[in-house]
Design brief:
The protein is of the alpha+beta class. 20% of the residues lie in helices and 33% in strands. The protein is built from seven helices and 21 strands. Strands 1-2-3-6-7-12 form a six-stranded mixed β-sheet. Strands 4, 5, 8, 9, 10 and 11 form a six-stranded antiparallel β-sheet that branches. A hairpin with a 2-residue loop joins strand 9 and strand 10. Helix 4 packs across helix 6 and helix 5 packs across helix 6. The radius of gyration is 22 Å and the shape is elongated. The two termini are 34 Å apart.
Length: 286
């Protein structure tokens, strides 16, 4: 059985101003720091099928959200993160979503409303809406914000075989956009799990100088002083695909940031203009 992010965890990754102050108690609506409302829900259940290895389900009350002037909806993706979707984007596709009627009140006061059901499958780094009307399908990955609970990521990946980690790292597809926008905020979309896959493939060792330093964190777990950097910067469109990440120690990371270390399109690495050999278990292995 999969667990979901707590409201506290969701709050930690919501953009500033959209963080939750208190629950409104109806239709999963919450008051936010900026005085507005946000709606949110966890998946009703999770399943695996032969066609899609991981599927999640949500029920939304879009008409009520619009009436309440809600601008965003968050959907938890078990402990991976959330989908933060502008209500306008959901309204634009609601005619393609499956619906179910529900009633409020009795007798002459009875009112009929629609509940909108969303089913999505997660595969190869993509989160795709599926089983909507008329075979409608849309990529929801651009709305995804990863939860940076590193303890959970370490625990999960430590149960994987190294070949399986490489396979998943190679299959990972970048998000269509590297940022999510909302309420005058701009937040990076980043896969912490993919970065940790690359760190594992490189044995948590700096690919340039060979530095490796372990330590024991406050929870009593072994971790490493290492940084996973983007070859093409996030601000220039670089994501977390297998050929855009480099494992560096803090010193070599600083050298790359200041242009002392550079990398060309063929993954040749230079320090002060002189080509150097690097350790590599993922860039050229493909």
């Amino acid at each position: 059985m999969f667990e979901h992010l707590s409201i506290e965890a969701v709050n930690s990754i919501l953009p500033q101003g959209m963080r939750i102050i208190n629950e409104k108690g109806i239709y999963n609506m919450y008051q936010t720091e900026n005085g507005g409302l946000i709606a949110g829900t966890e998946s009703k259940n999770v399943s695996r099928t032969r066609k899609h290895p991981f599927e999640v389900y949500y029920s939304l009350y879009l008409d009520e959200y619009v009436l309440k002037n809600i601008s965003f909806v968050f959907l938890t993706v078990y402990k991976e993160g959330i989908l933060l979707i502008p209500i306008s984007d959901l309204v634009s596709i609601k005619e393609n979503l499956r619906t179910k009627e529900y009633s409020v009140g009795k007798g002459i006061d009875k009112q009929i409303f629609l509940r909108y059901d969303i089913k999505a499958y997660i595969e190869k780094g993509k989160i795709m809406l599926c089983k909507a009307k008329n075979h409608f399908e849309i990529d929801l990955s651009k709305y995804f914000i990863s939860y940076t609970n590193e303890e959970f990521i370490y625990e999960e990946l430590n149960n994987y075989d190294i070949n399986e980690i490489y396979k998943e790292a190679k299959q990972f597809k970048d998000y269509d956009t590297q940022y999510v926008l909302g309420d005058n905020t701009r937040r990076r979309i980043e896969s912490k799990k993919q970065k940790e896959r690359i760190a594992i493939l490189e044995n948590h060792t700096c690919q340039i100088c060979g530095f490796q330093q372990a330590y024991i964190n406050p929870n009593g777990n072994k971790r490493y002083i290492i940084e996973i950097d983007h070859i093409i910067e996030k601000s220039k469109g670089g994501g977390e695909c297998i050929d855009n990440l480099l494992v560096l120690c803090p010193n070599c990371h600083a050298k790359k940031t200041y242009g002392i270390i550079t990398i060309d399109s063929d993954f040749r690495v230079y320090e002060n203009g002189k080509e150097i050999q690097i350790r590599d278990n993922h860039l050229r292995k493909k």
